[in-house]
Design goal:
It contains 17 helices and 14 strands. Helix 13 crosses helix 17. The chain is an alpha/beta fold and 553 residues long. The chain folds into 2 domains: 35 residues; 509 residues, 3-Layer(aba) Sandwich (Rossmann fold).
Length: 553
């Protein structure tokens, strides 16, 4: 007994000495300032904050972002912190254009910075080998931040799951490709910097999350919208293989993406798009682009119409996403994927002007869809043009992608789970936004009262709370075991061979089968024909689709 007691004393003394070294100012701090939890990880020592039974660490740097004259390089490794870091405030959002137009997604994210590669961790107080969910925010690869109030990880941590949310470079800073930048690269590539940031964050998690009580072998990547697109990029990227064990893709879109050096799928190369931007900005070389003020560069690039996408460079991404998944070369992990019934109600800029008559609409569809026109019009009839156009764009982008993901993972023998979020409440219905894009986020994160200022206010009712509780259960149980379950809601059927899915309806979750019969088959055929003809497949659907010629699909 004496020997054991002495070992305990020596261990405590060693830990105390380490903390005094790591946090030299911590020892002299008043008791009121010395209450934060401390974690000593391979990357450094961090002091966070405690909220009930959850420990929170905000703004941890995971890599160095090359800025100013060094911008447009891969994320750089950080030296281990010689002294401890107090990590109780979110890091700055990555640089992004500030829109003068306010909408339901608008909120003040604070001062932006190029030096923005940080992550945040919510962990149970006494976590040990806890499952980890890494959240990748949406925003069209142009905007957003991990500090968004919707992404608070407290409810998930209260259920035993560690939530990690990350920042990554956006817009021109994250996705500019250019021949000069490719020439600088040892691999001869450029443009995928935002995706490389995400991979660097996942590597940081692998190396450090055990110190926070997490299991590096049980990491789930998850994201919505552009975050869902990023999840698919990570599933396809050889550089991300082995960094995660499961995936969640919410309102993802498996659209065509440019190749780095050659025109492909009806689009110019990513390098040509970069050259076009430099000409538009009258900065004929990368040195002049690097000399630009970050705010000026961000806003000017957006005004010039620069569209950020990852590119097929042969290293970070080796093929179009559709081809990678067709070949079964994606990460062999369980997946949970889905979309919302009213995706386009808050994204109406994605649909073209509604034709003046049903006859004009049908004529356009018959011209463009040919022998597929009858199938198309059965799903999207001319009796209500606006609703049909909203539904078609939703399905061509989000519905087809969600079902494709679960089908392709099922094909390689991995558990796959599909959902449709089809829920509304009075303020949402009054705004004619039933099931709008991202409207599931407050429910699956568990905070119904932290929405942006213009978001339709969610009522504080037992029904809304019950739906949220069920969704947090499903998401956290999937992160834990690869199967979504809830003690207070119906069993979620696997997609399997009979098309099981979960319908999040107005009156709660309902298990169902055979989602929107005919929808997936039509859009899969349309994409196949576009691929065969070398055409892009994205927002150019319905009455603005290219003509679809018969092909061996």
């Amino acid at each position: 007994m004496i020997k054991l007691s002495m070992i305990t004393v020596l261990r405590r003394a060693a830990v105390a000495a380490l903390l005094l070294f790591a946090f030299p100012s911590f020892a002299a701090a008043p008791a009121s300032e010395a209450r934060g939890p401390i974690v000593v990880a391979p990357a450094g020592a961090y002091m966070g904050s405690a909220e009930a039974d959850v420990r929170v660490f905000k703004g941890i740097p995971y890599a160095a972002a090359p800025v100013g004259p060094l911008r447009w390089k891969p994320p750089q490794p950080l030296a281990r912190a010689a002294t401890g870091l107090k990590v109780t405030a979110f890091g700055p959002p990555c640089m992004q254009p500030v829109s003068p137009v306010k909408g339901i997604y608008s909120q003040d994210l604070g001062t932006q910075s190029e030096d923005c590669l940080s992550l945040n961790i919510w962990t149970p107080k006494n976590a040990a080998k806890a499952p980890v969910l890494v959240w990748i925010h949406g925003g069209a690869l142009v905007g957003g931040s991990s500090r968004d109030a919707l992404y608070d990880g407290t409810p998930m941590a209260a259920r035993g799951v560690i939530l990690v949310s990350i920042n990554y470079r956006l817009g021109v800073f994250g996705y500019l490709a250019h021949p000069e930048l490719s020439a600088e690269s040892p691999d001869g590539v450029s443009g995928n910097y935002g995706l490389l940031d995400q991979i660097a964050a996942l590597k940081w998690v692998q190396q450090n999350i055990a110190a926070f009580g997490g299991d590096p072998d049980n990491v789930t990547i998850a994201g919505e919208s552009a975050g869902g697109l990023s999840v698919m990029y990570l599933m396809a990227s050889p550089l991300a293989r082995g960094l995660f064990a499961k995936a969640i893709a919410q309102s993802a879109y498996m659209i065509s993406t440019p190749a780095l050096k050659q025109a492909a799928v009806g689009e110019p190369s990513a390098e040509d798009a970069g050259l076009k931007l430099t000409r538009t900005l009258q900065k004929p070389n990368i040195a002049l682009m690097r000399a630009m003020d970050a705010r000026q560069l961000s806003d000017a690039s957006a005004m010039a119409g620069f569209s950020p996408f990852a590119n097929v460079d042969g290293k970070t991404l080796t093929r179009q996403l559709v081809e990678t998944f067709d070949r079964g070369e994606q990460a062999p992990v369980p997946i949970l994927a889905g979309f919302n019934s009213g995706e386009i109600r808050s994204l109406v800029f994605l649909i073209p002007p509604v034709p003046g008559s049903g006859e004009a609409y049908e004529a356009a569809i018959r011209q463009r869809y040919g022998d597929l026109a009858d199938r198309y019009l059965a799903l999207y009839p001319s009796t209500n043009l606006r609703e049909s156009m909203l539904a078609n764009t939703r399905d061509a982008l989000y519905g087809w992608t969600a079902e494709r993901l679960v089908r392709k993972q099922e094909a390689i023998g991995k558990p796959s789970f599909l959902y449709l979020f089809d829920h509304g409440y009075p303020a949402m219905e009054a705004a004619k936004l039933h099931g709008f894009h991202a409207s599931e986020l407050p429910y699956m994160f568990g905070f119904l009262d932290r929405t942006p200022p213009l978001w339709p206010k969610i009522p504080a009712t037992a029904g809304e709370r019950a739906l949220s509780d069920a969704m947090v259960d499903y998401w956290t149980s999937f992160a834990r075991t690869g199967r979504p379950t809830s003690a207070v809601a119906p069993a979620w059927p696997a997609f399997g061979t009979d098309g099981g899915y979960m319908h999040f309806a107005d009156d709660g979750p309902q298990a169902a089968r055979d989602l929107m019969p005919g929808m997936y088959a039509l859009h899969e055929e349309a994409v196949c024909r576009r691929r065969a003809a070398g055409q892009a497949w994205n927002w150019n659907t319905g009455i603005v689709s290219p003509e679809l010629k018969p092909a061996a699909c």
